[in-house]
């Protein structure tokens, strides 16, 4: 299967809600930060057994992902992991270039 440029549109919304970055939900385009956001979600899932916002239905979770500064990070995690996750969850417009 070969992808055409039309198939590689970076302004479409595709993904599993709990791992989607805010800029993907807002259809602002996909960037490296989108992947880093998802890595943070996977790390939380590996450490706690569930991704951020998993206690919510998909639609409310999408709203929270966009509205919250960052997902809740469990207090039980080490300061190093907490710092790593906070870096993962920086929204692109707040990142330094």
From TrEMBL:
Catalytic activity field: L-seryl-[protein] + ATP = O-phospho-L-seryl-[protein] + ADP + H(+); L-threonyl-[protein] + ATP = O-phospho-L-threonyl-[protein] + ADP + H(+)
Protein EC: 2.7.11.1
UniProt GO MF annotations: ATP binding; protein serine/threonine kinase activity
Signal peptide: none
Coiled coil: none
Keywords, comma-separated and alphabetical: ATP-binding, Kinase, Nucleotide-binding, Serine/threonine-protein kinase, Transferase
Ranges where the Protein kinase domain occurs: 1-97
Name of this protein: non-specific serine/threonine protein kinase
